[in-house]
Amino acid sequence: MSSSPDTIEMSLPFKPEYVSVARLAASGIANRIGFDVEVIEDIKVAISEVCSKLVGLGSKISENYTIAFTLRKDRLDIIFKCSDDSLKCLFNNSNDELSLSIITALMDDFELCTTDKDYLLSMSKTLKEKG
Amino acid sequence: MSSSPDTIEMSLPFKPEYVSVARLAASGIANRIGFDVEVIEDIKVAISEVCSKLVGLGSKISENYTIAFTLRKDRLDIIFKCSDDSLKCLFNNSNDELSLSIITALMDDFELCTTDKDYLLSMSKTLKEKG
Amino acid sequence: MSSELNFKEVQSENLYELYVSGEVDIYTSQVLKSKLYEIIDANQKDLLIECSELNYIDSTGLGIFVGALKKVKQYNKQIYISGLKDNIKKLFVITGLDKLFIIKE
Amino acid sequence: MSSELNFKEVQSENLYELYVSGEVDIYTSQVLKSKLYEIIDANQKDLLIECSELNYIDSTGLGIFVGALKKVKQYNKQIYISGLKDNIKKLFVITGLDKLFIIKE
Ligand SMILES: Nc1ncnc2c1ncn2[C@@H]1O[C@H](COP(=O)(O)OP(=O)(O)O)[C@@H](O)[C@H]1O
Ligand SMILES: Nc1ncnc2c1ncn2[C@@H]1O[C@H](COP(=O)(O)OP(=O)(O)O)[C@@H](O)[C@H]1O
Question: How far apart are the C-alpha atoms of D79 and B126, rounded to whole Å?
Fold first, then answer.
């Protein structure tokens, strides 16, 4: 009935052993939009980069962080949320060079440092017609 | 730091195309506890039975329903939640015979009809030592 | 998008063979139902459902098999099911459907 | 629990070959790091990391490869990497690490 896009949310503990669970869920979601296998791998890597960073930092306030997927006709929007605002602007360290280069190369749109939103960061991947 | 068990939550639209996403996430989670492949398949089926029923009924109030996984050392607890209380006591129809026989056979504990709880239903699977 | 459910069909004089591969769940089940019902009405033969590449099924799919069996019985024909993986065979046993269908190894 | 990361090791006079299979992420990366560092310190040889069965890696794993390279260089040795799948090779190119390691087809 509603014409708003479908959303899927997943909340995960700040622990390394659950990053692979995020990847599995992401691959199922990306498959639903119609991304091909190669792009699905890219999305999994980009999501893992963020999860790994969050897990590495941890939180004193929150048990879990949340990944929200919005499934549009030709685009997957992903935002990371957490009640712990100290995690905003996640990638601000020179050690993050590898992660940053990977995320920016693999995703089409991203906002990796936000301090005034109700989420930590956002990234999107657009479905392209096969040439 | 906390000794409370890890929880993973996933909220999904009431649509058939996302039941497979629940299965993928469930298989990753069950793998983390250490269930073997055969038991993981059983857990996926039991979860699908509930998702399929929810999707079949739908909700006029809620866009999404939530699956909450609690990962204990030797047990996976799964509860289904939704703000739509009309979905309580999901399996009360004679057409549910197949689903009910499957869930009760595959899971170790279950509470399929609850009206006085803050969730729709619960099910658990216990990790058994290999004989 | 990758296809979750695929079919291959082989006909002989008295038997129609349907090879089912992939996953049958609430999303893919309508395709299975249409396929089975069409085959049954169009051919009115015994039907073999070959499942060695069927990786997943739940009550939605099992219900469709039962519906197909009722349809086949109208023509006094049978449904044979072969190649079931252990996890799926278990579901037939749990639900008692192993006694309704002719299950072959 | 199924093991997400596995190794096979083959030694010859001048080369130590490590076959890596499975997934390297933040959870499995410490095992990879220990394995690489132990091999390098114990053998002080050129190292070939064979990756044709490596299905997943991200910056956590790439960082460990870089750490291993620094260690190998202390002994004036090299790291060769072979068998990279396309998706993983892409990560080496994106990050410029394809210029630090000797990547073989
Ligand atoms: N344990 C069972 N044994 C036999 N029949 C069953 C069992 N459980 C459910 N059924 C029947 O399975 C059928 C499901 O078929 P269905 O897929 O809905 O096709 P149709 O819409 O043609 O009835 C229903 O008729 C239902 O009564
Ligand atoms: N683009 C890059 N090029 C070269 N080195 C890098 C790059 N990005 C990160 N590094 C380095 O990779 C290393 C990561 O190694 P690490 O796994 O932490 O092992 P160690 O703990 O022994 O340093 C760090 O020294 C980091 O500075």
Answer: 45
Q: Do B98 and C25 touch (CB under 8 A)?
A: no
ipTM of the complex: 0.86
Q: Tell me if chain D has a CB within 8 Å of the CB of B101.
A: no
| Ligand 1 centroid distance, CA of B52 (Å) | 15
CB pair distance less than 8 Å for B28 and A20: yes
Query: The whole model's pTM is what?
Result: 0.89
pLDDT digits (tens, 9 = 90+) for B4-62: 999 999 999 999 999 999 999 999 999 999 999 999 999 999 999 999 999 999 999 99
In this structure, how many other beta carbons lie within 10 angstroms of the beta carbon of residue D94? 18
Q: Does D4 touch chain A (CB under 8 A)?
A: yes
* Ligand 2 center from residue D63 Cα (angstroms): 5
Residue nearest to atom 5 of ligand 2 (CA): D66
Copy the structure tokens of residue B89.
């006591």
Give exposure, B63-83, as e/b (b: 16+ Cβ within 10 Å): bbbbbbbbbeeeebbbbbbbe
| CATH no. for B6-126 | 3.30.565.10
* Domain C5-104 superfamily per CATH: STAS domain (3.30.750.24)
